[in-house]
Design a protein that fits this description.
- Three copies of one chain form a homotrimer.
- Chain A has 337 residues and is of the alpha/beta class.
- The first copy, chain A, has 13 helices and ten strands.
- In chain A, the strands form two sheets. An eight-stranded parallel beta barrel of chain A has the order 1-2-3-4-5-6-7-8, surrounded by five helices.
- In chain A, helix 10 links the parallel strand 7 and strand 8.
- In chain A, helix 6 runs parallel beside helix 7, helix 7 packs parallel to helix 9 and helix 12 packs across helix 13.
- At the A-B interface, helix 7, helix 8 and helix 9 of A face helix 1, helix 9, helix 10 and helix 13 of B.
């Protein structure tokens, strides 16, 4: 077997992604394969009914800002939140911040109205978050409305990133099916499934567990979710640390989540941003490794050699892509400073 | 969408249950939906061959007393145990205690004889426990015998609660299928699948693990079992603490199990009852929360408003049912004092 | 039911295996059922390109020696490694050591060449290890080449033990299907699937996790893998301890793995052998239990009594087989001393 053929074998192997991710070639059209990696180390909720807080988003150092329609907004304020969000989408320059909207769940009965109004805004969010997806039926229902509302607009090239929430025992059980369905719709071009969030508090309520700061009661769900998300090359966003004042616990949980493979964490207060960003930023060693590996890869690739060893290990495409994502993440971080 | 329509959306959503449980409307006939929640914080085994111990059951403060045919009874005493159990079922007034019988496993070859004799007793147990269910075939086999033996009686309205045991690697792997099969038979009216027990010691023997007091080697199975049981709105009964003298370890394990979402625990000695009951009793705060939530729900429901917020969160039906179960459990506990 | 019939019920029940293992009667042909249990407490990699190290294998106290083609061998040395391995297979008397070869993964594009050359050696390895099996397709691909290369030889009764590696999120997800496929090919007689290895470092790289010495980030995968392997009565080989100098950590990890149900551990240096062998050797108490249980079993079996109680527990066939495996393992260990 020639080394060229060997290399093509590597390239056809599904693409791994590590703490960072990108989907397999062939899984998506060229256009999506070319889409940049969107860092979401920090995913911060900002209540949609609170215009003052919404307007402060550009000053925040969060990677992703979530314009919130769901749990952070009382039922009596849902209508107000939707209107505010449309206004803010038009008014604010989010710059390097990933602009996301979290709609209400399918089971709430509010999601159709959410999508109708938000997808009629002049500017649209880069990312849509859908909470409490327990099974395929709910994702199908959401996707149907998405398609309809996107088609209603004149421009038809809108295709947001999609992030789904796993927040119940059924959702953990059905997670593989939910992801596969989401990836199928992504291939069709409706959206681009890009990540999964572990909604630990609703999960605990659902199965009757009690959350502790150590989160020992969540090991099974937390590790199954990150493994499954990463197995499909999706981002994995870890649970919220609720006690805003406890920075020590926040740091411990963040580092722990990063070690498990999570790429980011939900936050609910600006005071949590820096600690979490730091925990999910690749270390200096990792960046150096990525830089040198890509240099070696480029050299070998130009000479047509294909597979190669680096620091004593044989390098395959997953590692090359990991390295690329690390450098892309670092570049995006620097762009913000 | 009107609030009335919204409310109906909530009601049709599957019913969540927390530390406590009740199945979805539609899943069972009206009659079963009306069945009371049976607390089983403590599930205590009493060997069927020991008439003296059996007669002491009414003095025990256990939620559930198990008249035991299986592991607690030597092979040479099986016949005696069956006869004793029939006698005790007739003789004793169990009062508020859930009266259960644990038959032998399908693979023991003893289960048919167990069911023949026990289901011919004058009074029948409220609950049947079937150990070592490794796959659907075993549950089908058991259910066929149940049907036949129940039909043999004149009164045909006997329909016990059923609790199955997960005690092997295969059982953990097949758990979802086993539960779905049990729920299907429940819809048919043979029994009412009401809970799952984690048989940790047989599980360890099956996979060659060694049990420690900390139970670190059991995290995967223990948390998968509770999550899956709760995802189907079943009770989840945690592993036995074997060392009867170690009250500290018993308390730690009980609290840990309750935090994971277990609703009760198996016990093997009266000295374990109080500690375990306490660990699985809802806290004062939780009872207060449930009382106030149900008050708010009733107010909104009467005014036709449907969905509502309570203490800052939007309330859905799962939370309403959780609250109901908490109060029902507390009521049952008080009934016994 | 007569005790004879009862006993036959026991015997038809799938055979359990504990820390040690043997597959169910009926699962394999008589010949395979008669195959001895091969202890693999220590599974040590020896790089195929290093003739000097290969020649030292007979002096090692490892249970299994792996002639390594994969990660331990640079791309430029693969050809040399294959030739060396063929030479060593012929040259060395492995004595009581299980002689294994680890080929490259299917996705490397190197496996066909590996198998062609190694399966043309004069003497063949007792065991073949295939790394990075992520799905059924890869196992099918490997098996096709195995069949073809084995058929090419004149003697056709070669049937190695097969051990597969679980080293990615997809592999953990697909593990049950992979094992079932491997068992089907085992029934056909191509090989005898005998164990599963947890490749923790590639797994971490795959899902973007970071390995720590405590391995808290691996609980889900590590425990799911051992449970699933044991549920199918396969050996389970635990992760490598990378830090060769840290004997304390090695011992802790070994004892922990043994408690979880693993039957052995991968090692990368002779200094790790003794610690790991000790951790995975049955204790004196366990050996005594096994000896007495088998004595009791033989007595009852000869008298035609079938099922029986021993030390207060009813004994079923799984326990009998566990006892047998323990004694067989001990016998094999003694043979080496």
């Amino acid at each position: 077997m020639t080394s060229r053929k060997l290399f093509s074998t590597f390239c056809n192997k599904r693409l791994s992604v590590n703490g960072l991710n990108k989907r397999s070639v062939g899984c998506y059209s060229t256009s999506s394969a070319e889409r940049q990696y969107i860092p979401r180390r920090t995913v911060m909720y900002v209540p949609g009914h609170d215009l003052k807080k919404l307007r402060k988003i550009p000053q925040l150092n969060t990677d992703c800002a979530v314009l919130e329609c769901e749990d952070g907004v009382a039922l009596s304020k849902k209508a107000e939140a939707r209107v505010n969000i449309c206004q803010i989408l038009e008014e604010i320059d989010f710059g390097p911040i990933d602009c996301a909207v979290r709609v209400n769940s399918v089971s709430s009965g509010l999601i159709e109205e959410d999508l109708k109004i938000i997808l009629s805004a002049k500017k649209l969010p880069q990312t849509v978050l859908i909470p409490k997806v327990d099974n395929i039926d709910e994702l199908n229902y959401f996707t149907d409305i998405m398609k309809r509302e996107i088609n209603r607009r004149k421009e038809t090239n809108y295709r947001p990133y999609l992030i789904t929430f796993i927040e119940s025992g059924q959702a953990v059980m059905n997670m593989v099916d939910i992801i596969k369905t989401g990836l199928r719709f992504s291939e069709e071009g409706v959206y681009l499934l890009d990540g999964v969030v572990f909604g630990s508090d609703d999960f605990c309520a659902d199965i009757g567990a009690t959350r502790t700061s150590e989160a020992g009661e969540l090991i099974y769900a937390r590790q199954k979710i990150v493994m499954t998300a990463k197995a499909f090359r999706l981002q994995a966003i870890d649970m919220v640390s609720i006690d805003i004042k406890d920075q020590e616990s926040l740091e411990r949980q963040s580092l722990e989540g990063a070690r498990m493979g999570y790429t980011g964490k939900q936050i609910i207060h600006p005071s949590q941003i820096d600690t979490v960003n730091t925990a999910f930023t690749p270390s200096h060693d990792k960046v150096e490794w990525a830089t040198q590996l890509l240099d070696a890869f480029n050299t070998h690739h130009q000479s047509g050699q294909g597979a190669f060893t680096f620091r004593g290990s044989m390098i395959d495409m997953p590692l090359v892509l990991q390295a690329r994502n690390i450098l892309q993440l670092v570049k995006n971080i620097q762009r913000k400073q």
